[in-house]
Amino acid sequence: MSAPLTRKGAATRERIVTGAATLLRERGVDQVSLDDIRAATATSKSQLFHYFPDGRSQLLLAVARHEAQQVLLEQEPQLSDLGPPGSWSEWRDVVIARYERQGTRCPMSALTRQLAPSHPEVGAVVAGLLTEWQRRIEAGLARAGVEQARTRAIIILAALQGGISLLLATGDSTALRVALDAAIADLLETPSGAP
């Protein structure tokens, strides 16, 4: 959309995106139509196409951006608090609980699979999510005084992504738990002399 949205317009657009995201999480991308989204968000057809003139694919891309933000928001405040002893185990528990709740249905993966062939910008959404996630982990490692924080952040994120992929394929979170625990094992230890 070229013209900036009014506050009311931005709220309406956000209502459509969050409503669509909720439906897609519950039913899956292939099971939700624009009519379903209109009904769930109390949106008229003209409103829907006002905010998403290119239709379903444009709305799905907006939902993918929303879901990417949710991945990080659902790790707060633990993700921003990474650094001191105890913070790593709290964050790990939040991440594992989030993905266990999600199970084998990942709206982000489903959206990117469906959009990727015709929407190259979806790659930028995924890349942006992973870059920001890595940056936030790296900041926590720096606060913890870890050397080569960037390299360690890459290792931790790779362990996370590998574990998440296996959970999505099998429905079993064991690989996610094992990989993440191995990647942050030394950060889970209490410093000597600490209670």
From TrEMBL:
<feature type="DNA-binding region" description="H-T-H motif">
    <location>
        <begin position="33"/>
        <end position="52"/>
    </location>
</feature>
<feature type="domain" description="HTH tetR-type">
    <location>
        <begin position="10"/>
        <end position="70"/>
    </location>
</feature>
<keyword id="KW-0804">Transcription</keyword>
<keyword id="KW-0805">Transcription regulation</keyword>
<dbReference type="InterPro" id="IPR054156">
    <property type="entry name" value="YxaF_TetR_C"/>
</dbReference>
<dbReference type="Pfam" id="PF00440">
    <property type="entry name" value="TetR_N"/>
</dbReference>
<protein>
    <submittedName>
        <fullName>TetR/AcrR family transcriptional regulator</fullName>
    </submittedName>
</protein>
<dbReference type="InterPro" id="IPR009057">
    <property type="entry name" value="Homeodomain-like_sf"/>
</dbReference>
<dbReference type="InterPro" id="IPR036271">
    <property type="entry name" value="Tet_transcr_reg_TetR-rel_C_sf"/>
</dbReference>
<keyword id="KW-0238">DNA-binding</keyword>
<dbReference type="InterPro" id="IPR001647">
    <property type="entry name" value="HTH_TetR"/>
</dbReference>
<dbReference type="Pfam" id="PF21993">
    <property type="entry name" value="TetR_C_13_2"/>
</dbReference>
